[in-house]
Structure formats: C-alpha cells, structure tokens
C-alpha cells in the first residue's frame, strides 16, 4: 500500500512544479464508486449589519440622554449609571469596536484614498459626537465613551495633576492625533486601533504588550483621573477644541456663583477654573512683550516642525508595509543581510519585479515627505499656539468649568451650595404637589 | 463702555463664525463619507492564493483562539491515502498515529471512504490556524486545504492585527454578505 | 442624626472590607492568570521540544513500538494541557473581572461614604498664583517640545535603506561576444572545447606544485566541470542527501560562497550509479547568475554573491544511468535538455526557464528516450540554434521560443557524447558506431538531404569530439585517439595514447589537450600527424573536462580544484 502510494507520488511528482505555484490539481478529485458525495465547505455568516445600525441609534439616544442629564437633571448619579451602561454596551458587549476615536482614521482614509469606501456607521460614529460637542460640549466623553468610562470607573482616590504639567502632557495627545492622521492617510496603519490600551479588556484578549500598557494606565487611573482621555486621546483633542465653541456650556452652579470656593477641589480632572486675580505691577508690560515674542516665534516653530517632520520622512515611511518589504528585499538583493524572511519570500512568489517594488516604495516615501512636513508643522503650530494661549490674559469673575477640558461628568454639582438650594426647592415643590 | 461693547460684539461674531466654520467642517466630513460610503458592511478575509501559510494567523489574532481556521475544499481534494497535508513528510505508516500527523493539535480527521480514498475534514474546535497542513497540501498536493477567517468567531476589528502582520498582504475586506474567498474548481485565482 | 451617622459609618466599614476582599481576590486571580501564562509560555515549548526529540529518535529506530506509543502519549498530553489551559484562562479572566468589579464598586461606595466636606485653603494672592502657574506651564510646554525633539532625534537615528537603482548593467545577461571569451558552460562556448587564448600554460606539475597557482578542496564530489566567468569559478557537488553549488575566487582559489539546493521528498530515495554520481551536470552562467541542475531534477539559480534566487523541481527524471545533461544559457534563459524514460511515454522535453525568476519560458516535448549528451547553442548564419541529441535524432530548436527548426534521424544507442559545431557542420557521435556530420541550414526533417557525411568505423562512447576547424578528433575511453578530416569524414590516423579517459579532449590554439583519469594531461600537436609535445602530472584522479580562460587552466580533480597558471 505504502509502496503504491509512494509510486503514485513519484509518478505524479514528474509533473511537480516549484513551491511558488499554488493549488495545481496534481491528484484529480475521484469519482466515488460508492456514490459518496463531496461534503460542502461550511461558511458561517458574519454578524448581520443591523447590529451596527442599532449601535448608531444607541449612540444618538445615549448622547441625547446624557445631554439631558447633564444640563437639566444635573445628577452625577444618573450620569454615572448611564456611563456604566455605556461601558457595558459599547465596551463589553460590542467589544469597543468601532469607536469614534478609531473612526478618525477611517474618515482620513476616505479623504485620501479614493479606493476606500467608509461604512456609514463609521462615519456616523465620527460625526455624531462632534455635532453634540458643538452644541453641548464633551457630553460624549463623560457619559458614553467606553474608554473614558473604564478609566472613570477605576478612579478611587483622585490626585490632582499640577496645572503646569497638564499643558506639557497634552502635547502627547496632539502628536498622537497628527501621527494617526498621517499613518491613516498614507494607508500605512491604524495606530489608534493598534495601540488602543483598553480594547483588550473589552475583548478579554489581545496582544500582551498592549494589555500591560492598558493595565498600567488603569493603575495610574486609580489616582490620576482619566489619564488616556486627558493626555493621549486623539479624538479628545478634536472634541475639546470644538467644545470651546459649544452653544451650551456645563456650569458648576445652576444659577449664579457666590464665590464660596467649595468647588475648588471638586474636579478630579483639573477642569475647574477659578476667577482671575489682578496681575502684579509691571506684569502687563512684560506680558505684552512676551506675547509679541511668541507671536513672532509661531511661524518659526511651524517651519522648524515642518523641517523636522520632512527630515524624518524615510523613517516615518517605514511604517508602511510596502516600504518595509522594499527595504528588506533591497538588503537581500545587495547581499547586505543573510537569508530571507517570510515577507521577502512572499514578495518573490508574486513574480513582481524589484523595480516595481522600489518605485512603489519611493512613491510612498514621497507622500511621507509632504505628510511628515505637515505633521511637524502641525506640532509646531500647536506648541506655538499653546505658548501664545498661556501668555494671553483671561478674565473670569466666577468659578467656571473649562469648556475644553470638562468631561461633563457632573461630579462638581454636589459641591455647589446653589445646587443644594435648587434640589431642596424642587423637593419642596414635589412635596407641595403631593 | 462702547469700546468694550464693540469688542464683545466682535468677539462674539468671531466665535459664531468659527462655530459655523466648524459645523461646516464636520458637515464636509459627513458629506464626503456619505458620498464615498459603502453600504455593505465589510469584513476581513484571506485570499487563499496569496497566503503562504506562514503561521502568523495562529499567533497574531487578538483572540486567544484565533478566528482563522483551516477549511477544506472538498471538490478540489484528491482524497489521497498519502495526504501531504495530513501526514508528516516521512510517515512511519499511513495511519492516524500522532507520530505521523502534521497537525499539532490533531484537528484533521481522516475517515475511510473507499479504496484507496480517504476523506479529510477539519474539526474547527481544535484547529488553531497554524497553516502547517495548508503548506503541505499546497506544495505537494492539490491545495484544497486553505486558511479562512471564520466569521462566527472574528470580531471584525477596524485594523486586523493579523492583516497587519501578514507577510504576503493576503488579507482584504470583502462584503459581509459574501464573506468567504473559497477555493473551488470553478473559481479563478 | 447620630443614628444616621452611625449607619453611614457602618456601611462605610462594610464597603471598605468588601473592597479589601475584592482587592485580595483580584490579586489571587491575577497571580493565577500570570502563573497560567508563564506555564504555557515555558512548559508548553519545553514539552514540545521533548516530543520533537523523541520523534527524532523514532526516525533512527522506526519499528520501536515503545517510542511510538511514547510519542502518542506525549502528544495527547500536550493537547489536553493546551485545552485545559485555555479553559482555565477563560474562567480565571471572568473571575478576575468579577473581582475587579467588586473591588471598584465597593471602593467607590467606600470613597463616597468616607468623603469629607471640602476645606478650601487660605486664598493666596490669586493674581500672583495665576501668573506663576502660567509661567510654569509655558516652561512645561517648552520642556515637552524639548522631549519631542529628543524623540524625533532618536527616530531620526534609526536606519532606513536608500534604494540605489543599480547602475544600468544593460540587459540582464551577458552578450554573445562576452560569452565567447569566458568558459560559461560545459566545454566552453558552444560546448566546443576550444579556446582561442594563446597564453595557456604548457607545463606544470601538480605533485611538486610547479606552475600551480592554487589548489582548493571541494567539499562534495561531482563529475561536473568548472565554469569560469571573469573572476569567479563555479562548481557543484552533491551526495545522496545534499546538493551544493560552490563559487571560488579565480585569483586566489578561496571559496567565496556555497549555496544549498533543496529537493523534493520523492527524490530522497534516488540511487545513482557511481560512474555518474550525484553532481554529474555542469553548471552554466549567463554573466549575471549561475544555474545548476542535479540528477534529482532540481534546478537552482544563484546570483554572483551567493544568494539563491529561485529553485525548482522538474520532477525526478527517469534516466537509466542517472541524468547528466549539462545546462546552457541563451540571453536570460536557462536551457535544459530533459530527456528521460524510453521515449514511449512522452516524458522527454527541452525547456527554457527565465533565469531571473525560474518561470517556464517555453517547453517543447519530444518523443525520444533518455540521453546523456549535453545540448549546445550555436550561431548558424546569424541565427541561433539549440541542438539536442537523443536516439535516434539530432534536433535543432530556436532557443528563444523552443520551436523545432530541423531534425535528422541518424543516430542510435545510448547517446552520451555531446555534439559540436565546426566547419559549418553539426557533429554527433553514436557510441561504438559512427560520427555523423549534419548541415544545420535546413528546415523540417533533413534526414535525406542534409547529412554531409558519416564515418562508420567506430566511435567513442563517452568523450565528446573536438575540432580545430580542419580535423575532428575523437577520443576513445581507453588508449586511442582518432583523427578525421572535417569536410569529408575521411579517417586520417589512429593514435595510441596510453591511458583511460573520461574527460573530453580540448583544442588550445594549435595543440590538443587530453586529460586522463590519473590526472595526466597529454599535450599533442593538432594536425594531420600527431606529435606528443608533453605530459603534465596533476597528482590526483580526474573525471571532469578542464576549463581554459586567459592564461589559466582550471582542472577539477576528485578532491580538489586546481588552477594552473602564473601569478599576475
């Protein structure tokens, strides 16, 4: 039996071509004498599409409810329950994908790659929280976003981050946003998805390095409120800047501020701004000069950033798989490295010429030349803008929630005596009705 | 006083203008997305003619048990006694002994049909998507064993971790209502 | 009031305790999960390694039942363990999640219940504080920028590869003219065994080292001849399990690289007679890549730096004495004469592979049996022809597309000597029987029309003929050199030269170089009368034909590769 089989293999091996050719029918499928039929290959279907549309509906309803709870009901407890509900639904039930943070990349890719067609739900997830932000502020962050919710849920003992440190750390988030847009636009990678720290917990599985980073962030989050939201989230950057313009703002007091100062330490995220005081003598003159300096510095920073990003174009381009393949194949072709890898073997199996490969890689690098310059310029702009912003005098007469940084979580409401007044009044009104 | 009022109005005007611009920007993003949208839900799938059975599918999936499994194209299989996808290159005997099996988890089941044909089926609960059988079958046999993403398991991540790690870029998005790229006698590569 | 405060205090205590309990459970399940992970990462591979070890043992002792059952047991254990671990991890992850939820819930409640009223501290001078904070924040931003710059510098230091499009080497193969000056295949250009270089050494002694430029051992044996291209010498060697291609530096003899050629499992049990050996076929180069073929049917291409570009199995050939036809190249194609079997099953073919990627460029079947001659590529009146012999035909093809140009039915027997092209004639040998001269200018079946002459007084069975343009010389396997006129085939003389011969004779200028199996090179005068000019000893047995390029002779002995010449 074995010999027959070996001879059969030998006989047919006379026609055996090499490794690169796939799936030739070397041994023709038999016709069974017993009439045995070939079974069918099973094809279990994917999740029905309507689940995604349900998600969009839940998102809209959730945001409407959140806005109501934040502005009308002003109840931290209700917001907390909504947040937990969103965590369970968008996080653990839907595995945290697709989320608005990642949708930035999908929309970017749509703009730059005409062969990519974005699913409507991804576009909806990107657009809807932004529209709400223009009207109601960061209601998405406080009550709906599962990544924010998981950080908020582990916040047990808030420790304040010094005001001066916040601006510096937020630079990371701007850089992340810029890099994510660059890599999505060039079709290299979706880095927001790749390095999402919390999705591994939602899925109960994932890359170990990312899980450890996520666990570390949560450990930090036990004490420092919402570290990812404040210092890393790229979507948060878009939300905070739109929130500055929102029609309605979260107010700590339901009526007027009596400057009782009881809300000063009420925000674990450092979003409460106290009224401004008078500047010391001579400060105004210095501030004017400083502002002029930073205004003049702004174009220099943008130019320097653009130059820096342009200089790094080849390293940045290394994020693209085609460029990596080209680099590896080039090294092998010129005997600068020993052996081959799966990637270079797979490339050679395609039969494409190395000329085509190098041409493609060079074209991608050229895209990164422009993209890198834009990324660098963007970061330069952000740094310059921040410096200018920190040199401008603000005038506040009340205790306010920073419209950019306030997550609309509702924690500060309870610390305002005016709020307690309002609650007592409404309780009395309810009692009177009864 | 009038100056302050003027500057307040100017600021308000700027603010309103900026607000409108942002709304328009968001609207543009929405409009662009709708224009270039895909009504179909897209899911990930492996092009079996590009796959080189490197083994990454078993290790890179974000799920503990990979969503990629081996499938059998029964119409392409040779039903051979000496199956190069089932048996190691130098088997002691053509039987189901562990020392002869190529599959590390014993996921391929071999059943006798008639002389000298055997049918090979995959037990998906055991398959880990390593592709060893795929390599053996494609190089020396008919290539009827190939890897596919199974959509009762796949989470359809926005960026598939296996797709990013695939050396031959064999992953692509396909419509969810036809989520498989099956090999078959009538299909063109 | 106190009652409410007491109740709050009680709940606070309860919440705190529950939080601690939750924390403890979290710790326990984290440790369990981590242990499970470490276990699977460490123990799993260790067990699998052990299993591989036992599998190797079984290969040496296939019938051992205890070993087989041990393999099965270990395999089963590994599988059971894997499934158990997955299950455990799954359950532990859920329990961990539950503990964390408990911890957080209780912790939050404890936090809420234990909250104190806010105590705003003394209001410092706000203005000064805010100015100070703003200044600190500006410096923090500058600091952030500095860190970013450091990060960018680090990124900038990581390497990237500059694609230097190679200086245009022109076409991806050497020109015909270039090939005429090198020894790019078996017996040199056109397989003629003729060199035009006038500076070839005429005396040396392998035993004393006189005249020997270098001598390098060749790792694996083979009867194939050296192939020389400018500063590189190529050989192949093999044993029943390993096939290799070697590259030596022409000036120093140092082995620059050796490349492995894999094979298919079906070829592993092939047995070939000792006289042919496992590396009988000579390699060939097109000036950019070197190609090798082995009797197992494996073809491979290497670039001059030793990187294997591609390899291919043509299937194990069915050849009575072991496949031995050498390769040739035409432009960027590798030409292979793949004759096998007895001719009845149509397995024989001539084919061309694209040298850059190994894809089949063309393939022409032929209804001929196995043959051991090597084909040649010649220029006939400006057009190239690819001539391949097998009983009973001499067939010429267009090397660019494999289309048959002409065929002549004039041979018989096991054809081992290769043809040559001299004096406008294709000369083919039928072992023990005849030398046939065919005019290559016809088309179709030219048996009746283009056979110029036949010399039917006996012919060698192994060595290929050589011609100086006027005479053609045949070398018998033992002791005999025959000379015939090229234009008529008329025998001129038979010369006894004592010795056994496997290597084919060569013409260097006006001299005959004849190498016997003991390694002695007989140098004689070519012409109507044989005159012995000298004998040079190598000191080693030789079966391969030598190569002659620009002042040097390359001879492959059974163990070493010799280069005979003067230092530059």
Give structural attributes.
heterotrimer; B: two-stranded antiparallel ribbon; two-stranded antiparallel ribbon; C: Methylamine Dehydrogenase, Chain H; five-stranded mixed beta sheet; 4 helices; 26% helix
Note down, in words, how this protein is organized.
The complex is a heterotrimer of chains A (434), B (189) and C (568). In chain A, 62% of the residues lie in helices and 1% in strands. Chain A contains 19 helices and three strands. Chain A has helices spanning 2-13, 50-73, 76-93, 100-112, 120-136, 139-143, 146-153, 163-185, 191-194, 199-203, 208-221, 227-231, 234-243, 283-311, 313-317, 321-333, 342-350, 354-389, 417-433; strands spanning 118-119, 272-273, 400-401. Chain A has a two-stranded antiparallel sheet. Chain A is flat. Chain A starts with a helix and ends with a helix. In chain B, a hairpin with a 2-residue loop joins strand 4 (108-114) and strand 5. Chain B has two domains: 1-37; 42-175, no CATH class. In chain B, 28% of the residues lie in helices and 19% in strands. Chain C has 568 residues and is of the alpha+beta class. Chain C has two domains: 3-113; 183-564, Methylamine Dehydrogenase, Chain H (7 Propeller). Helix content of chain C is 26%, strand content 30%. In chain C, the strands form eight sheets. A five-stranded mixed β-sheet of chain C has the order 1-28-29-30-31, with no helix packed on it. In chain C, strands 15-16-17-18-22 form a five-stranded mixed β-sheet, with no helix packed on it. In chain C, strands 2-34-33-32 form a four-stranded antiparallel β-sheet, with no helix packed on it. Classes of the chains: A mainly alpha (434), B alpha+beta (189), C alpha+beta (568). Chains A and B meet through helix 1, helix 4, strand 1, helix 5 and helix 10 of A and helix 1, strand 1, strand 5 and helix 3 of B. Strand 1 of chain A pairs parallel with strand 1 (37-38) of chain B, so a sheet runs across the interface.
């Amino acid at each position: 039996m074995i010999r027959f089989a070996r001879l059969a293999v030998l006989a047919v091996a006379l026609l055996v071509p090499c490794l690169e050719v796939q799936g030739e029918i070397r041994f023709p499928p038999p016709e069974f004498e017993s009439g045995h039929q070939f079974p069918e290959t099973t094809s279990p279907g994917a999740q029905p599409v309507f689940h995604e549309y349900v998600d969009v509906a839940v998102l809209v309803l959730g945001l409407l409810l959140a806005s109501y709870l934040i502005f009308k009901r002003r109840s931290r407890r209700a917001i907390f329950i909504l947040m937990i509900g969103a965590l369970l639904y968008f996080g653990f039930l839907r595995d945290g994908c697709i989320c608005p943070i990642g949708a930035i990349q999908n929309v970017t890719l749509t703009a730059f790659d005409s062969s990519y067609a974005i699913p409507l739900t991804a576009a909806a997830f990107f657009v809807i929280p932004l529209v709400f932000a223009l009207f109601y502020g960061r209601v998405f962050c406080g009550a709906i976003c599962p990544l924010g919710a998981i950080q908020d849920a582990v916040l047990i003992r808030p420790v304040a981050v010094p005001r001066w440190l916040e601006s510096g750390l937020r630079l990371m988030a701007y850089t992340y946003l810029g890099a994510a847009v660059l890599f999505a636009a060039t079709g290299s990678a979706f880095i927001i998805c790749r390095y999402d720290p919390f999705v591994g917990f939602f899925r109960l599985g994932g890359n170990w390095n990312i899980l450890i980073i996520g666990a570390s962030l949560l450990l930090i989050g036990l004490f420092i409120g919402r570290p990812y939201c404040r210092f890393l989230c790229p979507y948060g950057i878009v939300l905070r800047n739109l929130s500055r313009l929102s029609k309605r703002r979260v107010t700590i007091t339901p009526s007027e501020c009596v400057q009782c100062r009881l809300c000063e330490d009420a925000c674990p995220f450092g979003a409460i701004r106290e009224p401004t005081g008078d500047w010391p003598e001579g400060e105004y003159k210095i501030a004017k000069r400083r502002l002029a300096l930073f205004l003049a510095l702004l174009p220099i920073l943008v130019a320097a950033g653009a130059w820096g990003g342009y200089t790094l174009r080849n390293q940045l381009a290394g994020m693209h798989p085609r460029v990596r393949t080209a680099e590896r194949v080039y090294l092998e072709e010129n005997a600068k490295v020993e052996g081959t890898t799966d990637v270079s073997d797979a490339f050679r199996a395609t039969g494409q010429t190395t000329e085509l490969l190098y041409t493609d890689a060079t074209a991608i690098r050229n895209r990164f030349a422009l993209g890198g310059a834009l990324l660098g310029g963007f970061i330069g702009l952000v740094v310059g803008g921040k410096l200018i912003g920190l040199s401008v005098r603000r005038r506040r007469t009340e205790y306010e929630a920073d419209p950019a940084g306030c997550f609309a979580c509702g924690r500060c409401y309870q610390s305002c005596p005016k709020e307690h007044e309002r609650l007592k009044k409404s309780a009395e009104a309810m009692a009177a009705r009864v | 006083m009038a100056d302050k009022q003027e500057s307040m109005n100017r600021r308000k005007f700027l603010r309103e203008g900026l607000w409108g611009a942002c709304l328009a920007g968001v609207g543009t993003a929405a409009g662009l997305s709708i224009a270039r949208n895909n009504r179909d839900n897209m899911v990930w799938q492996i092009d079996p003619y590009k796959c080189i059975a490197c083994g990454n599918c078993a290790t890179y999936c974000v799920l503990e048990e990979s969503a990629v499994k081996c499938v059998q194209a029964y119409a392409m299989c040779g039903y051979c006694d000496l199956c190069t996808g089932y048996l190691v290159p130098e088997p002691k005997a053509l039987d189901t002994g562990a020392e002869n099996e190529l599959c590390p988890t014993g996921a391929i089941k071999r059943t006798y049909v008639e002389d000298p044909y055997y049918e090979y089926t995959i037990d998906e609960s055991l398959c880990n998507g390593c592709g060893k059988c795929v390599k053996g079958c494609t190089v020396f046999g008919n290539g009827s064993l190939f890897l596919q993403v199974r959509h009762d398991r796949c989470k359809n991540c926005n960026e598939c971790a296996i797709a990013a790690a695939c050396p031959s870029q064999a992953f692509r998005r396909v419509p969810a209502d036809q989520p498989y790229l099956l090999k078959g006698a009538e299909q063109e590569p | 009031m106190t009652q409410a405060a007491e109740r709050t205090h009680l709940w606070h205590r309860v919440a705190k305790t529950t939080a601690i309990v939750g924390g403890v459970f979290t710790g326990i399940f984290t440790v369990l999960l981590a242990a499970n992970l470490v276990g699977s990462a460490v123990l799993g591979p260790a067990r699998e390694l052990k299993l591989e070890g036992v599998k190797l043992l079984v290969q040496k002792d296939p019938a051992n039942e205890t070993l087989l059952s041990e393999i099965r047991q270990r395999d089963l254990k590994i599988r059971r363990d894997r499934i158990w671990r997955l299950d455990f991890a799954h359950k532990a992850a859920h329990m961990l999640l539950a503990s964390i939820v408990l911890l957080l819930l209780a912790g939050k409640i404890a936090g809420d219940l234990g909250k104190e009223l806010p105590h705003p501290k003394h209001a410092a001078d706000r203005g000064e504080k805010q100015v100070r904070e703003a200044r600190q924040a500006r410096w923090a931003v500058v600091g952030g920028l500095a860190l970013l710059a450091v990060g960018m510098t680090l990124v900038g230091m990581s390497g990237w590869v500059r694609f230097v499009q190679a200086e245009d080497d022109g076409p991806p193969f050497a020109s015909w003219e270039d090939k005429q000056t090198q020894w790019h295949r078996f017996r040199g250009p056109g397989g003629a065994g003729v060199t035009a270089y006038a500076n070839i050494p005429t005396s040396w002694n392998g035993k004393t080292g006189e005249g020997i430029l270098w001598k390098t051992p060749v790792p694996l044996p083979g009867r194939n001849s050296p192939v020389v291209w400018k500063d590189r010498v190529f050989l192949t060697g093999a044993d029943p399990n390993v096939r290799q291609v070697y590259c030596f530096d022409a000036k120093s003899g140092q082995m620059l690289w050796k490349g492995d050629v894999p094979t298919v499992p079906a070829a592993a049990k092939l047995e070939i007679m000792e006289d042919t050996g496992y590396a009988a076929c000579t390699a060939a180069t097109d000036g950019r890549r070197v190609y090798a073929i082995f009797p197992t049917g494996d073809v491979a291409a290497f670039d001059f730096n030793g990187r294997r570009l591609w390899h291919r199995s043509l299937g194990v050939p069915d050849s009575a004495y072991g496949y031995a036809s050498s390769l040739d190249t035409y432009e960027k194609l590798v030409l292979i004469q793949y004759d096998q079997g007895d001719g009845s099953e149509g397995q024989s073919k001539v084919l061309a592979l694209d040298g850059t990627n190994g894809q089949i460029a063309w393939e022409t079947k032929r209804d001929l049996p196995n043959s051991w001659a090597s084909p040649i590529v010649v220029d006939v009146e400006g057009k190239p022809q690819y001539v391949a012999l097998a009983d009973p035909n001499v067939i010429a093809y267009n090397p660019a597309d494999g289309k048959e140009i002409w065929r002549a039915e004039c041979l018989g027997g096991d054809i081992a000597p290769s043809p040559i092209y001299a004096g406008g004639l294709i000369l083919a040998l039928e072992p023990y029987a005849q030398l046939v001269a065919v005019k290559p200018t016809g088309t179709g079946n030219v048996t009746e029309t283009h056979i110029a002459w036949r010399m039917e007084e006996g012919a060698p069975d192994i060595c290929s003929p050589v011609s100086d343009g006027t005479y053609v010389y045949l070398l018998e396997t033992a002791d005999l050199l025959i000379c015939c006129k090229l234009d008529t085939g008329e025998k001129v003389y038979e010369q006894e030269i004592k010795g056994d011969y496997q290597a084919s004779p060569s013409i260097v200028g006006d001299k005959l170089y004849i190498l016997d199996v003991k390694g002695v090179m007989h140098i004689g005068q070519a012409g109507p009368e044989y005159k012995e000019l000298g004998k040079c000893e190598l000191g080693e047995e030789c079966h391969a034909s030598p190569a002659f390029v620009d002042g040097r002779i390359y001879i492959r002995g059974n163990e070493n590769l010799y280069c005979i010449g003067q230092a530059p």
